[in-house]
Amino acid sequence: MSRARDIANLQSGGVINDASADLDFRIESGGNANMLFVDGGNDVLVIGQNAPDTTISGGKPAFQVIGSGFDGMAAVTRRDSGVYGPALILSKSKSTTPDNYSIVANGDALGGITFIGDDGTNLDTYGATIQAVVDGTPGENDMPTRLVFSTTADGAASPTERMRIDTSGNVGIAMTPDSAVKLSVSGAIGPTNGSASAPTHTFYSDPDTGMFRTAANIIGFTAGGTETVQIGSFGVAADQLTNKTASGGIVIDAAGDITLDADGGDVIFKDGGSEKGRFTNNSGTFTIDANTNLTFRGGVQTFDNADGSVEYMRIDSNGNLGINGNPISYANGQATLFLEDTANPAIGISDTGQSKDYFIVANGSRLGIVYGDGSNSSSASNITEIASFNNSGNVGIGTDSPQFKLHVNKGSSNYAPSNGVDENIVGFQTSYDSGGSQIVTFSNLDGNWVDGTSGADSAFGWLWGYQNLVRGGLIYDHRGTERMQMFSSYGTISFITPDSVDGDAVPTDSNMTERLVIAPGGDVSIGKTAVDTNAVGTDLYSYGLAVFVRNNGVVGLFNRLGSDGDVVSLRQASSEEGTISVSGSTVSYNGFSGLHESSGIASNIPVGTVCSTIDELDVYPDSQPDEKGSTEDHPKKGQTRADHAKIKVSDTEGDKRVYGVLQRYDNNGKPLVASVGIGSIRVTGACEGGDLLESNGDGTAKVQSDDIIRSKTIGKVTIGNSDTGVKLVSCVLYCG
Predict the structure, then answer these.
(1) Is 509's pLDDT higher than 80?
(2) DSSP assignment of 461-514, as one string?
(3) Is 427 helix (H, G, I), strand (E, B) or coil?
């Protein structure tokens, strides 16, 4: 009865099996008894067979085409006069109801083609896949998608991604596509050999320019179909080598020798077509011929004999010159010019225009500077020694046998300036004005000052005097006691420099400014005349306070030039309590509590209480500590602080407005709230190290329900607590 009804329904355009029974039926064709088979119990439509394959990919696909020849293939053909061909459309929606829509998400597969083979046990072993995957955030008329091609290696159980085409059309083979290039490949690329007219690596619209394999282990470069350069084990071979670098130059980098063989010709250097120099090898003589300046650059430069066995001259990396010997290093530096000879090395300088000769000569024990009058420089009678240096390190001026580190011989004439300075001293004197002078002087042999003043004790050093008035000085030795002392008649020591100097003119009082002042109490001011915390400059107080004042810009700069590490060390009683360190571009505040001054809670709130912000701003206190630890009026008392919020005890469970944890109160009774670093929190209930904490809604914290750091997270427990009550727990604070 039901079959007759089904036939009647079909003939009238109705439904077969409208009772939803487990009913199978088939349709025969002229050559296939199972042209169409419906498996009503398994909800499968089969073409070519009277039963579905149930083990395809571990399941029963709803539509199957099964056959041994063409009857096992499916073809889609489009016949019309338009430009479009047939298409296979694979679509994905998260809605389970037809004509209803639910947007897909990033990472969803829009569709794919899977290639499966029979492994002798099951028809569910993957060979390869082609899959389209959402790659981004989709929206209306916006579906960013990547194509992924995967194959299965021999012995592998599943396919591995081999190629990807991303949303920008960039292709990656065995790797994720690089956004900067259209094709990214991990591994070797093996093209055919190619030829000069058809290179394997070429360019768009220029197919006969590129690179190819000329022969085994040889790469050829072609331009316009003509091979111009070969690179192989022999090196580089080229008919013509011109500038090909971005800056217009050419770089040759070889592990072995580089040979320039001009075959009897010169190696010529040009700039803009004009010759600037050349190398010439003529009759065994190598000549460097520079039409303009000749410059040598580099580290150590040596000039040797023909076989390199004897070094004649050396210029070291510091620019020092040694002739017949290396420049000698001394404790205080190196000899810029060093001459060595088995006899008496000498340098002669002759000014023929003035008929004067100057010599620097040395022997085994003494170095002398001599002067010749030019009449006959070879005659000793015409040469006068004007300075001498012996092997004890003594220097003599006017004597060839210096007895002291500096020995000056006055000669036969007396030096008696108007102020009566002793002739045995070494002094500098300049006229300052009509009423006085500036004098730098050293003591004479009896150790007394010789500046025309009285009362100066026996000393060795220098003294600055003005109109015979002692204003200050520097003493090295005083009455046989070695020391260094700077003194001033006025109690304050000032360092003064001119604002500017007009040519060779002597600076006047009008453009002289104090740059550094040392006050009688030991306070130091830099850039101003006295310590003043509100004036631009730097103050260094004798009790250990440093004050830096600037109108604009950075006030303090800490610059670590070496490796990563600590930049600032914070100490209490010589013990390091925290540091500020750098690692690359990251700044770390180690042990720093992130204290914030605020207001809004009572002074009896216990330490460790969780606090949150309210929609009000803090105000400046009435007083503040001064530089010496006392109290002074705050210049902004009662004014609103735009950078500080008022707080309250957190009264919301999982409060996202947590500001920090009460650390302590300052001398003015203002609460100091810690937001980052190491701190202690009042925690309700048991916790363990690593637990994240959130507000409990009563000023305490509790363990957060998950391990994800969120806007409500206060910190992480470092040392746990097994007590079920309220305990102070050590934590790392995150809420700042």
Answers:
(1) no
(2) EEEEEETTEEEEEEEEEETTEEEEEEEETTS-EEEEEES---TTPPPPGGGEEE
(3) strand
Same domain, 729 and 594: yes
**74 within 8 A of 62, measured Cβ to Cβ:** no
**Quick one: which of 9, 29, 131 has its CA closest to 71?**
29
Sign, CA dihedral 377-378-384-390, equals positive
Residue 518 shares a structural domain with residue 403: no
| Residue 372 φ/ψ, nearest 5 degrees | -115, 145
Question: Residue written as tokens 């200050």?
Answer: 472
- Which of residues 26, 56, 72 is at a domain's end? 72
Rounded to the nearest 10°, the torsion over CA 431, 432, 433, 435 is -90
Question: How many H-runs (helices) and E-runs (strands) does the chain carry?
Answer: 1, 55
- Tell me, yes or no, whether 603 and 674 share the same domain: yes
Residue 424 CA to residue 57 CA, distance in Å, equals 112
In a domain, 88, yes or no: no
Q: Is residue 529 part of a domain?
A: yes
Q: Which residues are 109's β-sheet partners?
A: 133
363 and 330, same domain (yes or no): no
- Closest residue by Cα to residue 458 from 473, 444, 469, 470: 444
pLDDT attached to residue 698: 95
What predicted TM-score, i.e. pTM, was given to this entire model? 0.37
Domain holding 690: CATH number? 2.40.300.10
Place of tokens 């004197």: 429
Q: How confident is the model at residue 36 (pLDDT cuts 50, 70, 90)?
A: confident
* Range of the structural domain that residue 37 is part of: 2-72
623 contact partners, CB below 8 Å, separation of at least 6: 631, 632, 633, 634, 637, 668
- Statement to judge: residues 611 and 684 lie in one domain: yes
**What are the Cα distances from residue 436, in Å, to 387, 415, 465?**
33, 20, 9
Local structure of residue 139 (DSSP, 8 states): B
240 or 190, higher pLDDT: 190
Give the integer Cα–Cα distance in Å for 44 and 133.
27
Q: What is the predicted pLDDT for the residue at 609?
A: 96
Reported as type and span, the H/E element at residue 531 is none
Token readout for 504 is: 């060779």
CA distance 52 to 54: 6
Boundary residue ending a domain (123, 155, 185): 185
Does any domain span residue 238?
no
39 contacts 24 by C-beta, under 8 angstroms: yes
Residue 356 domain-assigned (yes or no): yes
Which class for 215: exposed (0-12), middle (13-18), buried (19 or more C-beta within 10 A)? exposed
Q: What angle do CA 188, 190, 193 make, to 5 degrees?
A: 145
Closest CA to 187 of 172, 199, 202, 200: 172
Bin 62: left if φ > 0, else alpha if -120 < ψ < 50, else beta: alpha
Q: 483 and 443 share a domain?
A: yes
> What pLDDT is attached to residue 123?
80
C-alpha span between 157 and 186 (Å, rounded)? 23
377 phi-psi bin (left φ>0, alpha ψ -120 to 50, beta other): alpha
| Phi, then psi, of 203 in degrees rounded to 5 | -135, 155
Residues 464, 510: one domain? Answer: no
Residue 471 and residue 486 in one domain = yes
Domains: count for the chain: 9
In this structure, what are the phi and psi dihedrals at residue 683, rounded to the nearest 5 degrees? -115, 135
